[in-house]
Amino acid sequence: MKENECIACHGEGMQADDEGWQYECSVCEGLGVVPTNREHGTRIMSVDENNRLLD
Ligand SMILES: [Zn+2]
Prior knowledge:
The protein has 55 residues and is an alpha+beta fold. Helices cover 24% and strands 11% of the residues. The chain has one helix at residues 42-54, and strands at residues 14-16, 22-24. The longest helix is centred in the last third of the chain and has 13 residues, at 42-54.
């Protein structure tokens, strides 16, 4: 269970437009969670790098 689940993509990290094309969620940048505690952001940054490698 994710604490800060992104409400825009429901934690999936992807959004789809009307034609069914999927794209990286612009709210959470594909993380599926919204980083609300950036001052402790070391772990969140590493997750972000991993997600970008998959892109
Ligand atoms: Zn999102």
